[in-house]
Amino acid sequence: GIQVEQSPPDLILQEGANSTLRCNFSDSVNNLQWFHQNPWGQLINLFYIPSGTKQNGRLSATTVATERYSLLYISSSQTTDSGVYFCAGPRNSGNTPLVFGKGTRLSVIA
Amino acid sequence: EAGVAQSPRYKIIEKRQSVAFWCNPISGHATLYWYQQILGQGPKLLIQFQNNGVVDDSQLPKDRFSAERLKGVDSTLKIQPAKLEDSAVYLCASSYGGSTEAFFGQGTRLTVV
Lengths: 110, 113
Description:
The complex is a heterodimer.
Chain A: E1 4-7, E2 10-14, E3 19-25, E4 32-37, E5 43-49, E6 52-56, E7 59-64, E8 69-74, E9 83-90, E10 98-100, E11 104-109
Parallel strand pairs in A: 2-11
Antiparallel strand pairs in A: 1-3, 3-8, 4-5, 4-9, 6-7, 7-8, 9-10, 9-11
Chain B: E1 5-7, E2 10-13, E3 19-24, E4 31-37, E5 44-50, E6 53-56, E7 65-68, E8 75-79, E9 88-95, E10 103-104, E11 108-112
Parallel strand pairs in B: 2-11
Antiparallel strand pairs in B: 1-3, 3-8, 4-5, 4-9, 5-6, 7-8, 9-10, 9-11
């Protein structure tokens, strides 16, 4: 099955700044997901992105499956963006469980 | 549409005691997962159900963990007896049919003392 690496592990931003989080996979991956884990521990779905680019407000994500990476962009960051961001991809093809990276801990300070 | 429901939200038990967690997936989602998330790490799969059958339990410590999904809807995860290293957040997730897009519940934070 795939392995997932996320970078950077920690990131501190001033409110209003932009950032890019990266996710590398050990093998070609489809149907990647990005999550935000809030301070109460819940995983909030951000993107389900088979390939290409998706945008939702200040957030956007790009996956290049053939090059085995995905990027999450956060623009004009807000303090409510703080938390841990995870990417995850299916272990194998088909209906298989997600394999997660270790996450990027983002702190946005006012 | 209601999300994945889990209970309890928090649980503190002594080592060697038993504990059970409950999960109700999103209506119509055939696939149900239990993940364990230890502090500072990403979630790791414990078990995957498709309807009421087990698809993957290769990472479930079967000497102390058990799970069931009777009638193919809600599920229960049990730990007996608990160890200190079982302290973690237990997350339930579900997905629809053949999709891998998973939706997570709020989790149960277990502390074993």
